[in-house]
Amino acid sequence: MKILIPLDGSSNADRAVDYVISNIAALKQPPQLLLLNVQWKVATGNVKLFISQETINDYYREQGMAALQQGRAKLDAAKLPYEYHISIGTPAEGIAQYVSEHHVDQVVMSRHGQGGLQAILLGSVVSKVLHLVDCPVLLVK
């Protein structure tokens, strides 16, 4: 079973990792744990005229690793194996694409991420994920 845990660096998102760790014993066999961070694409338009692609890629990598840090630390402490990936795009579409490409069996995510004004303006990532993926989505409070 492949379980995807999308992380945005918020403490709310890390609760999904806590949930998986505390409930993993209930599964018949250990799942394959997949962590994903989707970085908003910031390099659009003429930005690439002033900033090199290498610098942009370094920025995505640094931000993504920072967002995954807490979740990775928790899984390391629990001695659970996992894979992680950083993608670029819009979060809901990035999650859906990852689910499709990696044949994910379940998504475990927090109801609230960084949110705030961004959630109001762009819509809830959770709402979009629920509509875009074909596998079960478990929402953690």
Structure description:
The protein is α/β, with parallel strands linked by helices and 141 residues long. 48% of the residues lie in helices and 21% in strands. It has helices at residues 11-23, 47-50, 53-77, 91-102, 117-122, 125-132; strands at 2-6, 32-39, 82-88, 106-110, 137-140. The chain has a five-stranded parallel beta sheet, sandwiched between helices. α1 (11-23) crosses α3 and α4 runs parallel beside α6 (125-132). The two termini are 23 Å apart.
At a glance:
By secondary structure, the protein is α/β, with parallel strands linked by helices. Helix content is 48%, strand content 21%.
Write the layout of secondary structure elements.
Elements (H helix, E strand, L loop, with lengths): L1 E5 L4 H13 L8 E8 L7 H4 L2 H25 L4 E7 L2 H12 L3 E5 L6 H6 L2 H8 L4 E4 L1
Parallel strand pairs: 1-2, 1-4, 2-3, 4-5
Helix pairs in contact: 1-3, 4-6
Question: Which labels suit this protein?
Answer:
alpha/beta; single chain; 141 residues; globular; five-stranded parallel sheet; Rossmann fold
